[in-house]
Task: structure prediction
Amino acid sequence: MNLPYDMYASGDYLKEKPSWHSEDSPGKAGKIREILPACEVAPTSICEVWCGSGKILAELRRFYPKQNFSVMT
Result:
C-alpha cells in the first residue's frame, strides 16, 4: 500500500520549522482561553492532538492548574 507523503513523519517539517511555531503558542493559548468561557465550557481535562512543541499546553496549564492535560501524537 502506498501511503500519501507525510511531511511530519518524514522529518521535513521539523527541518523547515525547528521551533514547531512555539513562538505562536501564547497567542494560541490566549484564543483558547477566550473561546472556552464564551462557549460556557469548563474543562476538567484538556488534550491536544499533534501538539508540536507542547507549549500551548504548557501555557494553558498556568491558567488551568487543576485540569488533567494529555497529548496525542
